[in-house]
UniProtKB/TrEMBL annotation:
Annotated protein name in UniProt: Uncharacterized protein
Species, as recorded: Rossellomorea vietnamensis
Entry-linked InterPro entries: Ferritin-like_SF (IPR009078)
Amino acid sequence: MLFVNRLQTGIDHSWRLRNFYKELQTKTTNSVYRESIQQAEGDKREHYELLQYVYRMLTGKYYSIENKKTDFTSFREGVLVALKSELKEAELYRDLLMACPGRHIYQPIFLIMTQVPANAVRFNSIYMDLK
């Protein structure tokens, strides 16, 4: 089932990015940057929980995540990785939303889809400020 496979990808991305953002926020002393990254990290935690909820509704079980680490050599590089990841996720959730098998699944995906662009704006703002 293509929808479930994409859902698994979203679960993996949310978990990986949550951990990545936790590490990224420790690499800056700028409180505004840190606050923006903390907001994105909280969103990823929420996305992970919502996607696991949807996955469980569809399959009757929780998805076992793949623990992958995102490497970066500088704060600037990490912000760029975060920005690209958020933009990639926006496409994933758009596709999930378009393929939703029912209203009960549409709502959590819609919520996630509306939060991802806000995170992309946050990371874009940080990245532009670092230039």
